[in-house]
Every structure is written in structure tokens, then in C-alpha cells.
Specification:
By secondary structure, the chain is of the alpha+beta class. It has helices at 22-31, 36-50, 55-72, 74-87, 91-98, 100-104, 197-207, 211-220, 266-269, 274-277, 280-294; strands at 14-18, 116-122, 130-140, 147-153, 159-164, 171-174, 179-183, 227-232, 237-243, 246-250, 256-259, 330-339, 344-348, 361-364. The strands form two sheets. The chain has an eight-stranded mixed sheet with strand order 1-4-5-6-7-8-9-10, with helices on one face. Strands 11-2-3-12-13-14 form a six-stranded antiparallel sheet, covered by helices on one side. Helix 1 packs parallel to helix 4, helix 2 packs across helix 5 (91-98) and helix 3 (55-72) packs across helix 5 (91-98). The relative contact order is 0.16. Residues 132-267 form the Peptidase C45 hydrolase domain.
């Protein structure tokens, strides 16, 4: 089966929302995505249907997720309500986008995407520690035109980064210098019934002023799904296995964290949906770790090239296979670096192999 892939926008949308009230920030976001949110919802409708998830079930899951969000953070629910109002769509539609990972956990036909993250904590004698990170965001090629860079100001901390149309947050850095990379993991108990991972990422970036504060927020959240947050501020870094059976800190490799899409701690690993990612996830992580034994990146600019791969190598640089059906066409939709010291997120609209042929979009949370 062949397919014509969607066209990347000539210029990636950048959404700015500035307001002290979260509902008003949501309205501003929704107004700028009046076409983009229904377009994203249409793709997810197809993915839900492919996974055997009926529209009635999607609406029910979305309503439950919205209630869970409201109990955890009323402000986050208010922002979702504002996005729906601004975009002119039903509130449950935006809630379904924010809970898309948890809803898709019901499906065996649409496995999650693959991402690779590196976070470095450089310790040099006589100088303060420095931290920086890079990530590929790999997802369905059908959504290549359905994401944007974001600048959200007016909450406790300003936030810059990238996310999908209608979704509160994903990867980014805030004005306090707290950065977050986000990978999806898979546990047998994943589903609806807690705070969606994308909403939790947005809450952490808006509220946390340090790694310690971020970890406290994550541990306080009711969880029914899985993910990994690589959290780092100017001097500290931690990598979390987040799951319905608890939150666990993963070990570093010589002050470097490498994350793909499997659990790195034993308790959640015992219930992992290993068939979703393995052996690919393990191969990608081992490949990157091997590169890091020979190259020790000293700055954020040294990181992205470590994620460039080609034929015969694990697909850290992920290119879509046009002969695969809907739900199986993965691509590295974006590459993002984060640097807490400068409060900077740099976003490349493409794969790490596109470095040098496309310009980075530089966003600063200060």
C-alpha cells in the first residue's frame, strides 16, 4: 500500500498566548488554531477507529479525563475549556486530544511512537554543573502538519517549547530554568483514570521552578498511564519512569541520561508492554550509549548529531515507510534541544539529519 504523505507547512505555526487567567490563555490558543484543532482531531478519529475504539468510547474517555484533570488542577481544565471555546469546538474534543495517549492505550493496532532523548550534566572541576538535552519527537507522519511551537506567558512561569494542536504541553523549558523532555512508555495497566501524561507535562512546566519541585508535582499526581520525563534545571537532572504502579528514578550513565521507550527500573518493567517497542527501543538506546563512550558532548550544540542515523543503524533518525498502512508510518517530526541556563528551546522542523538544511526556531522563556 502506498500513500501520499501530508505536506509540512511552509512555515511552522507559532502560537503565542499571554494572560494571567488560564481560561483566557486557552481562548487565545484556540483562536489561533481554529483550523488546526479540527484537523488534528480528524486524524486522531481515524487512529481511534483503527484501534477499534468507538466514537462513544472516545467521548466517554474524554469526559472522564476532563474530570480527572479538573480534580488535579482546575486551572488546566479551565485552559482546555478556553481552547475549545477559542477554536469553536466541543470541549470533549479537546479533552480527547489531551488524553490521546491514554485513549490509544486501549488499542493494539496503533502502537505509540518512538522518541530518543539525551540529557547531559557536565561536571568540570572549578565550574558549576551545566545541563542540556536533545530529543527527537517521533510520531505518525499524518500529524506532521498538526503541531506547533508554543509561547505561553502569564502563569507562574512562562513556557516555550512544542506541542500538538489542542494539547496543553509536551517538551519545553520555563522561565525558571526547568526543562522537560517527554517519552511515552507502555505498561499493561495504562488507560484512563488519572491525569493524562501531556497535561502533567504542561502542569510541571508551568508550576515547577526546579527539578525537586517538578518531581514533587509528578509524585502528587493520580496516575493511570505511563511516560518518562527527563527533568533538568541549571545544575540538576533526573530521569523518571512514570507508571500506574509508581514513579521511579532511572540511573544515569556517567552523568548522562539516555531514554528511548522502555522502562529502566525493575518495578514498572515487570508489567511492561514489551511487544510495543522491543527490540527496537533497546537497540536505539544501546546504539546511542555506544556513541557516547566515544564522544562526550560538552555543549548543547554537540548533542543533535548523536541522533543522526542511516541505513543499517537503529532508527534514531526515524523515516516513514510509505508502504506501511495508517498507524504504522513513523517519522521524526521534530528535533528539539533544551538549555536551562539560557531558558532556550531550539526546535528543528524535521529529523536530526536535516540539520544544516533547515533553520532552527529559537524560543526563549525569559
Amino acid at each position: 500500500m502506498t500513500s501520499t504523505f501530508p505536506t509540512r507547512p511552509a512555515e511552522r505555526p507559532h502560537i503565542r498566548a499571554t494572560a494571567a487567567d488560564p481560561y483566557d490563555r486557552g481562548v487565545a490558543r484556540g483562536e489561533q488554531l481554529r483550523e488546526g484543532i479540527p484537523a488534528a482531531a480528524e486524524v486522531y478519529d481515524r487512529l481511534f477507529a483503527l484501534g477499534g475504539i468507538t466514537p462513544a468510547r472516545v467521548a466517554e474517555d474524554a469526559a472522564r479525563a476532563l474530570d480527572d484533570i479538573g480534580r488535579f488542577r482546575p486551572a488546566a481544565r479551565a485552559e482546555i475549556t478556553g481552547i475549545a471555546q477559542g477554536a469553536g469546538v466541543e470541549e470533549w474534543r479537546v479533552a480527547a486530544l489531551n488524553a490521546r495517549t491514554e485513549i490509544l492505550a486501549r488499542s493494539a493496532a496503533v502502537p505509540p511512537g518512538e522518541c530518543t532523548t539525551i540529557v547531559r550534566r557536565v561536571l568540570e572541576e572549578g565550574t558549576a554543573p551545566r545541563t542540556f538535552g536533545v530529543q527527537t519527537w517521533d510520531w505518525h507522519i499524518e500529524l506532521s502538519a498538526r503541531w506547533h511551537t508554543l509561547e505561553s506567558r502569564g502563569g507562574r512561569h512562562d513556557v516555550v517549547g512544542l506541542t500538538e494542536n489542542g494539547i496543553l504541553g509536551k517538551m519545553g523549558v520555563n522561565s525558571a530554568g526547568l526543562a522537560l523532555h517527554f517519552n511515552i512508555l507502555g505498561h499493561r495497566r495504562d488507560g484512563i483514570g488519572g491525569v493524562p501524561m501531556h497535561v502533567l507535562a504542561a502542569v510541571v512546566l508551568e508550576e515547577a521552578g526546579s527539578v525537586a519541585e517538578a518531581v514533587e508535582i509528578v509524585r502528587s499526581a493520580p496516575l493511570a498511564s505511563s511516560g518518562s520525563f527527563a527533568l533538568f534545571d541549571e545544575t540538576d537532572a533526573v530521569l523518571l519512569d512514570i507508571s500506574p504502579v509508581g514513579v521511579f528514578e532511572a540511573p544515569s550513565e556517567h552523568d548522562t541520561f539516555v531514554r528511548t521507550n522502555h522502562f529502566l527500573t525493575p518495578v514498572p518493567a515487570a508489567g511492561e508492554k514489551s511487544w510495543l517497542y522491543q527490540p527496537d527501543s533497546g537497540a536505539r538506546r544501546a546504539f546511542v550509549l555506544d556513541r557516547l563512550t566515544r564522544r562526550r558532548p560538552a555543549t548543547v550544540d554537540d548533542l543533535p548529531e548523536l541522533l543522526v542515523t542511516g541505513p543499517g543503524e537503529p532508527p534514531v533518525t526515524c523515516l516513514p515507510d510509505p508502504d506501511q498502512p495508517l498507524g504504522q508510518r513513523w517519522a521524526s517530526l521534530a528535533t528539539i534541544t533544551l538549555e536551562p541556563a539560557t531558558r532556550t528551546a531550539s526546535v528543528l522542523d524535521g529529523t536530526p539529519a536535516d540539520i544544516g538544511t533547515r533553520d532552527w526556531r529559537i524560543l526563549t522563556a525569559d
